[in-house]
Amino acid sequence: MADNMNSESKKITKEDFKDYTYVMVSTLNQMVNYIPLKHFEFKEVYNLTVEDSEYADNGKWDTNLQEVLGNEVSISQIEFKQSEITNIQTIKNRLDKFKNKKIFWNITGGQRPFILAMNQIAKESDVICYLEGNSSQIILLQNNQEIKRIIDDYSIDNSDNLNIEIALKLMGFEIKETKTSERNLVQTYDEDEKDEKKFYLKFLDEYIKNKKLRENLILLNRDSEKTKAKEEIKKILKDLNYSKIDEELDKNKAFGYILEKLAGYKILKLFKDKIADMSLGEKINHSKEKVDEYHIDEFDIALLTKNGKFMIFECKSGDMSGDVAKSTKYSTYAVSGAYGLPILITPLLQDEIDNIDNLDKKIYSYIQSAVKSAKRAGLEVWGLDKIEDKLKKYIEL
């Protein structure tokens, strides 16, 4: 029973809330409503929503969540007019129907009047929930006291319950199927492309210690230097015995593709158990049916943690305009709200990023420009040699 949670030492599980009704508030970031629902497996679910808002289309958000859940859970809508939510008493009156039920109130999303009303009417047996996205914690309150019992982890392990496609759908986006996208890398990591995986992990080790290799890969982007650079790269990598290296180096924008692989396989090796889903070259539709404009964005590396944090890595081997940097940042926020994290991965090591103006402009000018554009747009910029240190603070919280 949840009534005496603070007095017990065992961890909180879904059994503690098996007879609770789940009440949430419609929000653009429906992931914050989805995670407790799936984690605790509530059977009776209500959603507070505004039906005539001039500022947000709650109806679309509510549809997004119901479509993801399908027939598994039916959400009952409690609708308010925009004029009604300015009156706390009106909200409380509408929620009076819950006075004889034990309620799990999720106050993470939605307008403040709903949150105030929930706090005022919560009974002794009720639980108030808040997801702290930055630290990946669920905070539970009962009788205005934080519940001290431990939540083991609110991660969702089953890929059928949490993957990139679901995360995007919760935000009203749709995956665009392409031949170039490489999806479900977490599920296939130990099964497919073993030679490729091993090669790129060894490649990264050589990349970090060999400046000549790094500079030739940068020159691979220039038509006048491409042939010579390719031969130099092959010489350096010959001991790695990878039969597809010629094919990799001949691809259009080869270094950008290689950079994605270097970063992607390193991330997977280090944090596979923390990642729900990951893809390379992920294209999304800003569908006409879901948002106001229609266009397609592509994320070089899209990563979704098991606790619902969405991270976008833009791998730029050359120039990146300020507009592209801003688009990456805003697309990440559109997909995952303020908890989304847009990151630029460059061909540079961290020390080179920190001393960007001291690099040889004949080789690094385009990359210097990309780093500065990214920083102006508010993106984090990571060196390939610091992926582990920097990602730990976000993914292992």
The coarse silhouette is elongated
- The low-confidence runs, each spanning 5 or more residues with pLDDT under 50, are 290-294
Please give the share of residues in helix.
25-40%
Give the end-to-end Cα distance, rounded to a whole number of Å. Answer: 28 Å
Percent strand equals 15-25%
Which strand order spans the largest sheet, edge to edge or round the barrel? 3-2-1-4-5-6-7
What kind of assembly state do the chains in view correspond to? single chain
Task: Give the ordered list of helices and strands.
Answer: EHEHEHEHEEEHEHHHHHHEEEHEHHEH
E-strand count: 13
The average pLDDT is 83
Instruction: Tell me the number of helical segments per DSSP (H or I, 4 or more residues long).
Output: 15
Gyration radius over CA: 24 Å
Return the structural class.
alpha/beta
Biggest pleated sheet: 7 strands, mixed
Helices, strands, pairings?
Layout: E1 21-25, H1 31-40, E2 45-50, H2 58-69, E3 75-80, H3 88-94, E4 103-106, H4 112-121, E5 127-132, E6 137-142, E7 145-146, H5 164-170, E8 174-176, H6 185-188, H7 194-209, H8 211-219, H9 226-237, H10 245-250, H11 254-271, E9 275-285, E10 296-305, E11 310-315, H12 322-336, E12 341-345, H13 350-354, H14 361-376, E13 380-382, H15 387-395
Parallel strand pairs: 1-2, 1-4, 2-3, 4-5, 11-12, 12-13
Antiparallel strand pairs: 5-6, 6-7, 8-9, 9-10, 10-11
Helix pairs in contact: 3-4, 7-11, 8-9, 11-15, 12-14
Q: How does this model look, in words?
A:
- The protein has 397 residues and is of the alpha/beta class.
- The chain is built from 15 helices and 13 strands.
- The chain has helices at 31-40, 58-69, 88-94, 112-121, 164-170, 185-188, 194-209, 211-219, 226-237, 245-250, 254-271, 322-336, 350-354, 361-376, 387-395; strands at residues 21-25, 45-50, 75-80, 103-106, 127-132, 137-142, 145-146, 174-176, 275-285, 296-305, 310-315, 341-345, 380-382.
- The strands form two sheets. Strands 3-2-1-4-5-6-7 form a seven-stranded mixed beta sheet, sandwiched between helices.
- α3 crosses α4 (112-121), α7 (194-209) packs across α11 and α11 crosses α15 (387-395).
